[in-house]
Amino acid sequence: MPISAELLEILRCPACRAVVELKPDGSGLRCVGCHRLYPVRDDIPVMLIDEATIDE
C-alpha cells in the first residue's frame, strides 16, 4: 500500500519542518527545504534524522 495523500499532507521534516515529497519510485520522502531523504521501509516512512541521507 503506497503512502496516502492525506498522510503526505501532514508529514513534515523533523529537522527543518518543511514539506516532504514522495520520490517518484516510492523509495523515500525528500524534504524540499534541507534536501534530506527519509527512507520508506515496508510502506512506512522512517522520519528519523539519524536515518536520513542528504539528497543532491
Please trace the helix and strand order, writing H or E for each element.
Answer: HEEEEE
Q: What portion of residues belong to β-strands?
A: 25-35%
Distance between the termini: 27 Å
Arithmetic mean of pLDDT: 93
Contiguous low-pLDDT stretches (5 residues minimum) are: none
Large-scale geometry: globular
Radius of gyration: 10 Å
> How does the helix and strand content classify structurally?
mainly beta
Q: Regarding CATH, which class?
A: Mainly Beta
Largest sheet: number of strands, sense, barrel closure:
5 strands, antiparallel
Beta-strand segment tally: 5
CATH topology: N-terminal domain of TfIIb
Could you say what the CATH architecture is? Single Sheet
Helix content: 10-25%
Question: How many domains make up the coordinates?
Answer: 1
- Please tally the helical runs, counting DSSP H or I stretches of 4 or more residues: 1
Question: Could you explain how this protein is built, in words?
Answer:
This protein has 56 residues and is mainly beta. The chain has one domain: N-terminal domain of TfIIb, CATH 2.20.25. Helices cover 11% and strands 30% of the residues. It is built from one helix and five strands; from the N terminus they run αβββββ. The chain has one helix at residues 5-10, and strands at 20-22, 28-31, 36-41, 44-45, 53-54. Strands 1, 2, 3, 4 and 5 form a five-stranded antiparallel sheet that branches. The termini are far apart.
